[in-house]
Amino acid sequence: MVMTNVSQWISEQKASNESLAAQMKAQSKLLLIATEEREHLQETNDTLKAEVERLKGALDEKDRDVEGFKAQIRHQSMRLDRRTAENQGCVALNLSKIEDMQTRMRSNLEAIGMLNQQLNTLSQENEQLRRQLDEERCMRRQMERLLPPTSQHCSTHLPVSPGAHPPPECASLPPLPHLPHPLSSTWVTGDTSSAEWS
Question: From start to end residue, where is composition biased (Polar residues) (predicted)?
């Protein structure tokens, strides 16, 4: 009876030991799997950390590039503003010059018109004076042809014919009026401030 109980207890202990051994073996296997998984996760974590660091570096570099681009944009904007202001100043100056030139051109055109009127008037006066001079010369030639040559010298030895009237004391032509030098107008070309008369 005692032996039977001992044998049964031994059998139970053996079965229990085998069960514990199987459990320990299973747990060891699970522990190995967990260890391998942990190592794999650690490697993955390290890889991810390295990738994060790389991405952070790339992001920092991109941020620096963005700041550089912003600085360039600000610089270009300032240069563009300066150039725009300079161009606006040049445009305003050119417009002022154009307005001044237009004003001067209008004044020159008015002066040209006035000079043309004066030229026309002087041309008419010149033509009138030429006609008057030609008439005076024609009258002088006619008078010279009508008078004998000796009548020009107030001679007192002229023969007196019966019934003839004595000659005048000094038969001379009436003095010609003082005439200016004949004018010939030259048309104004180009410069309105110069007009030559000859």
Answer: 186-198
Q: Which domain holds residue 27?
A: 8-139
In a domain, 178, yes or no: no
The reply to whether the predicted model has a pTM over 0.70 is: no
Its sign, for the CA torsion 26, 30, 31, 33, is positive
- Strands of the chain (E only): list them: none
Does some domain include residue 117? yes
Distances from the Cα of 28 to the Cα of 15, 20, 36, 153, 183, angstroms? 19, 12, 12, 171, 138
Please give the chain's pLDDT, 198 residues, in tens.
Answer: 667 777 888 888 888 888 888 888 888 989 999 999 999 999 999 999 999 999 999 999 999 999 999 999 999 999 999 999 999 999 999 999 999 999 999 999 999 999 999 999 999 999 999 999 999 999 999 998 888 766 444 444 444 444 444 443 333 344 444 434 433 434 444 444 444 433
Q: Is residue 175 part of a domain?
A: no
CA distance 78 to 65: 20
Residue 183 near residue 120, CB atoms below 8 Å: no
Query: If 0-12 CB within 10 Å is exposed, 13-18 middle and 19+ buried, where does residue 167 land?
Result: middle
